[in-house]
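pinging the channel bc i need a second pair of eyes. not urgent but kinda urgent?? the chain im working w is below, pasted from the shared doc
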Amino acid sequence: MTVKDVGERETTPWPEFGTQGLDQNYIRRLTDFVDARLYLADHRVLLLLKCLMTCEMPEELRQRATRSVLGFRYSLLEPGTDSMSLWTENHQVTVAVAEYLAGQLFIDQTFTNDGRVGLRHKRAAHGRLMLWLSDRFRFGFSEWLSNTYLAFDLAALAMLVDHTDDEVLARRASMVIDLALIDVALHSFRGRFAPSMGRAHAEQVMHPEKSEMAPIIASAFGDVPPELDCDELASLFIVRERYQVPAAIRELAREQPLRLVFSSMGLDDVEVRRELRRHPQFPRLQMLEVVRFWWGMQAITTPATIVETMRAMRALDLREHRTFAPLQRFSRLPVRALRPALKALNPITSGAALHRANVQTLSTGNYLLSSVQHYQPGGFGDQQHLWHASLPGGIEVFGNHPGSTQLAPEGRSPSPDHWVGNGINPDIAQHYNVLLALYDLRQRRGMFEGRRKELVHIHFPFVLFDQTRLGTNWVAGRRRKSFIGILASHGFEQISETEIVQRGLETGYAVLLGDEEEFSSMSEFLHELKQYQLTLAAGRLSLVSPYVWYDLQWRGEFQVNGSPVRPDYPRYGSPSVQAPRNPDEVVVHGTEHTLRLAWPAGERVESVGQD
């Protein structure tokens, strides 16, 4: 066995000024956006810094870019009000990387927004980065498996690795990139990444090949370099110069065996105080430190967080911010009245909180089925994508309760929406290739909730299948060697070439997948599908066949043949990657290589051969 540290790689550098659209108009677009401090302005700062650090440009333009970088607001602790959302998990790292590199680049210069010199900005950002990186290694990503927001994390970290002068920080950032790419490799299907996700957008779910993660996946695992678009943040990962994807992770991504993966990511809001208090590297007790973690997981208006949210909102003077302005009605209440008032008003914003996610993904060479188990059933949803099936030919199948909100977020479409998230979350459980989803839409209405639809629907692209069949309470499709069938507790209604609907306040369905290793034809698969009987009574969804029965009780147990199936997953549970929750070490076994990531010692070591 040969042991070596993960080495460096050569790659195409960031384009020179005057090529591939990097011209005066490009720089001015970036500076105008940064100066206006619009939503996603932190992304533009990173792109602007990349140009400043790697491009020769006219002096007047360089000075303009420098003024924008020095005048930016990098933290909620700095003076100013704007439309930026710097507190969510992905923005925490993008803005911290931007501040760190800006401070490093302009080490002795004064930053005009707060009057501190670059060295102080660099030190402040370094502390936030070390916390963020350590939390991701220990707890995973709250925005679990997102094919949008994970891309932003990876782009920022790749740029940090390229340009930091701190080798310890570069090593830590590389290890977190490794973990994110492990997640992608384990939960992808034929290069498409659309498993269950903490935050999703409709277009990227229906067409994962168009997601922000698609060029990153192609760059990390593909044989053909993706096309470079310097307006997109993912370009920073594509042009990386130092970070090399370990061979063990590439082997995970390129091999497509039968693979069952259990993953646990994030924390419930009620766990945060305890887990941060006993964090082995960075124990935290202060209110703003705890709030930073809560807001990173968007737990702003939950019973566990509302008191500290109101205190932090006053301390940081966020009363004018679009996200926090609706909370002004709470501002005059005494502390003891905040939680009762929140429970009485029942705002749908509580559904934005990204709680602990126990995700099961089954993938074969012919299909993928992924879901998060028992995720906040009956609660409000937001952007969480709770289950997904992928088949060959770009077929993506998923279902939700279409939501409606009276709130209009800055810079993106409102959520939940027609295909995004859920108005009311279902109870979901998966056992290998079978998934049960149980909906109860009779929950109490919430503040800011729009008109609640009394139906659930499924995205089922009939036109992409080779064969489809639709019955009164079932639908089935075949694509090449892959089959999917869905049984409904109430009747299905096809309303378009991509959508079927099940109406009612209390409904459920079962999703079954298979391939030609089990079924020789569509007829044989349909014969098997019709052996199952799906019933819903007294909050219990039961799927029964001559061979096996599944039973899902609303907010209760999931049983298979009478035996409870527990959803408390380890951080990683798969043949290739295993680690308990809150690990200090993660080991990846590829087909020929092994990667060991040991966080306390900061070791990132790859072995040729198996341990």
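so Residues 1-5 have pLDDT under 50 and may be disordered. and The CA atoms of residues 5 and 605 lie 5 Å apart. — does that match what u expected or am i reading it wrong
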